[in-house]
Amino acid sequence: MPFRALGLDPKILQAVQDAGYTEPTPIQSGVIPKILEGQDLIGIAQTGTGKTAAFTLPILTKLVPIIGDGSRRGTRALVLAPTRELAVQIEENVRAYARHLPLRVATVFGGVGERPQIDALRAGVHIIIACPGRLLDLMNRRCGDFSGLKFLVLDEADRMLDMGFLPAIRQVVKSVPQQRQTLLFSATLSKEIESLTHEFQRAPKLVQIGRRSNPAETVTQLVYEVPKHLKPALLAHLLRDTSLNMVLVFSRMKHGADRIARRLEQEGIRTDTLHSNRSQNQRLRALKDFKSGAVRVLVATDIAARGIDVDGISHVVNYDFPMHAEDYVHRIGRTGRAQAVGDAISFVTPEDQDELRALERFIGRGIIRKKAEGFNYAQAAQPSDADSGKRKPSNGFRGQARSQKPIHPGMKVPQPSNQSRTQKTQGGRFRPR
Ligand code: AMP
User: Where are the beta strands (DSSP E) in 191-318?
Assistant: First the structure.
């Protein structure tokens, strides 16, 4: 179905064309007509599926007459998002899709001075993209006019719940008109999300794209088995390959992210970090430098990286194996976007093996094991690294022959027949949420 069959305003179609989109993504063709009809909606889709345009394009279409009418100044659409990075990214998208309209838009989030945000709200903006905490703070101080609000979007609602934003969201929703269209987007449809939709929506339509746990089809997924103490050396080794030119590395901990970055900088690789110990300005600059290519590697934690939209990421490296299956799916969704084939590389230590198998069952496919070419596992395992201690120069893997054998994508991983193994895996830290 072409974009022009969806009923969007011509000025918005022009912007879509300017952006180079040739046809709508599945979530876009699924939700745009429903939003234009005025229905409440639950969109189950991962980041990277085009969901921002899926809600922005029809909202803008419905706002066109209001945007042209300079007499009313109140806010018409409010988008709530879990992180500052995501809010900034949504704003960039909204501005791009509204480039042929005199739209006023503002972002509201903590960690930066509030004065410009207050001024923007007082001056009147059509669309606000906000993190719930700071917005509530400003609303309590009577900033902004929400009495004519027509659209409320809860983006990445699952993550907002995880981050404890529910009380703030409830307060915000109480302060906006009941006569509105409410659109909720989430990567998963959990019980908590269902109760949220009952609380905030009226007879919502459900649009679900793909299987709940299906990672982006275009991403080539690989596993490198490596003992923990060799991970820094392996990462540096892999980065000698210049085709890894825009690399997002995931670290479980903030200080781990800093350590990885320091190590790579020592190797002469331009690296920056994205995590919650960094100031808002540092985070925005890190993203900007990564996007522009000034830094080649960005090391991030899951929350900080949630929803970031950077075109052209060549590789995602799971330096630390993710804690939850959904995090894996989110992480690898950063690459392989918009048809560009990208690689997702996961380092897997002997301790991660059970979790890897649990992940393979969750995503319904095996992941290819690979050995790093030219990386001397035995030599590098000598106790030169502080982490290696008195370790034997073994690579730490049992069942070597089996684990080196590639498992082809698409192949189902058999459920383990052994009862105790099943229990152990299900009871381990790696559980689908
Ligand atoms: P999102 O899921 O909203 O984060 O979007 C993921 C990426 O897909 C963004 O870089 C968008 O610019 C891009 N995108 C959105 N819609 C389309 C489309 N119809 N065709 C091609 N790219 C798109």
Answer: 205-208, 220-225, 247-250, 271-274, 297-300, 315-318
Distance between CA 135 and CA 303 in Å, rounded? 20
User: Look-up: residue for tokens 């609602």?
Assistant: 157
Query: Does one domain contain both 153 and 264?
Result: no
The CATH number for 425's domain is: 3.40.50.300
Residue 319: closest CA among 336, 298, 303: 298
Residue where one domain finishes, among candidates 167, 189, 209: 209
- Name which residue leads in pLDDT, 213 or 87: 87
Specify whether 179 is located in the same domain as 272. Answer: no
* Ligand 1 site-directed mutation target among 23, 49, 52, 88, most atoms within 8 Å of CB: 52
Q: Are the C-beta atoms of residues 370 and 224 closer than 8 Å to each other?
A: yes
Q: Which domain holds residue 400?
A: 213-433
Lowest-confidence region among 90-99, 309-318, 400-409: 400-409
The pLDDT value recorded for residue 191 is: 86
Whether residues 44 and 62 fall in one domain: yes
Please give all residues whose beta carbon lies within 6 A of any atom in ligand 1, as ranges.
Answer: 21, 24-25, 28, 47-53, 309, 311, 337-338
Mutate to test the pocket of ligand 1, among 1, 44, 309, 329 (most ligand atoms within 8 A of CB): 309
